[in-house]
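# nightly structure sweep
# worker-07 picked up a monomer target from the shared queue
# config: single-sequence mode, recycle default, output format = structure tokens
# input follows
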Amino acid sequence: MSLPEVLLWRELRRQSEVKFRRQHPIGRYVLDFYCASAKICVEIDGIAHEMGDRARRDAARDEWLGDRGIEVLRIPASDVLKSPSEIVEALMRTCRR
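# output follows
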């Protein structure tokens, strides 16, 4: 896992409201984080997601997941590095809705 993913995982494990899995396989993909009860996938996007055909590949992946009822939340790695606890608070609000 990348540093932003490690930081986010540490914060997610501290809260007890919603259960997340990390590196969760589904189909041919591995999701950074997945909340099964809310059917939410959390992807932490670093600079690599802005290069080459990555945007097209990400869109295809998001569509595939969406077709299966899974909402994809893409969070910039820089936001996680700034404040992982704020990201977790936002994720808890999203998962509770």
